[in-house]
Amino acid sequence: EVVSCAVDRILLVGKDSECLNQLAQALTVHSPLDDAFSIIREKLAHRRGPELDESKIFIRTSLSAAQAIKAAESDSFSCIISESRLSDMTGAELLQQFLDKHPDCVRLLVCENNSDDAIVDAVGAAHIFGVICKPCFGIEVKACVAQALNWRRMNIEKKVLAEIVRTVRTY
Fold first, then answer.
1. What integer pLDDT is reported at residue 112 of this predicted model?
2. Residues sharing a CB contact under 8 Å with residue 56, sequence separation 6 or more, in sequence order
3. What's the mean per-residue pLDDT of the chain?
4. How many Å apart are CA 89 and CA 85, to the nearest integer?
5. If residue 59 lies in a helix (H) or strand (E), which one and from where to where?
6. Looking at CB atoms within 10 Å, which of 7, 27, 131, 141 has the fewest?
7. What are the C-alpha distances in Å from 148 to residues 34, 64, 151?
8. Is-contact 84 112, C-beta < 8 A?
9. Residues contacting residue 130 through CB under 8 Å, at least 6 positions apart
């Protein structure tokens, strides 16, 4: 059974601790650029989209796929963000394993460029929500993660509603 939590737990996986720390900082530190981006998006789109609340996320980092898999055995994650190239397997392979074992964990892939055919194949095979291409700005990462977590919440709500409908139909 899937339960929505007050704090979204995000697992970052990569082989470079400095890159992981930068990504974690981009997700957890609110900057004036975040406010400017929200205003611009609201004016252009005439509505607000999902935004990442830095106070409602917890970041855990992992320097290998094996370490990430072990972390997921004892912890539940709302989102996993993996670099495409890891030391012990590809990010796509790791995200495929997460799809199989933790289907409600939304999956994002970080890659060097978006023209790689392997990335396109990975998106379909592992049902990856999105691809973040390097180099990227923190605001882009936040927007992608906010959309992914919002999509996850909607899917969880859909499952709960479907279960309610099934229960009501049996009476």
1. 80
2. 6, 7, 8
3. 86
4. 7
5. strand 57-62
6. 7
7. 17, 23, 5
8. yes
9. 108, 109, 144, 147, 148
Measured distance CA(111)–CA(126) in Å, rounded = 15
CA distance 81 to 23: 10
* CB < 8 Å & 24+ apart, contacts of 110-119: 110/14, 110/23, 110/81, 110/82, 110/83, 110/84, 110/134, 111/83, 111/84, 112/84, 112/85, 116/84, 118/84, 118/90, 118/92, 119/84, 119/92
Phi, psi of 119 (to 5 degrees): -65, -45
**pLDDT tens, residue by residue, 60-72:** 999 999 999 999 9
Q: Are 63 and 15 in contact (CB under 8 A)?
A: yes
DSSP category for residue 85? B
CA distance 83 to 130: 12
**pLDDT per residue as tens digits for the range 91-141:** 999 999 999 999 999 999 998 876 666 677 777 778 889 888 888 888 889
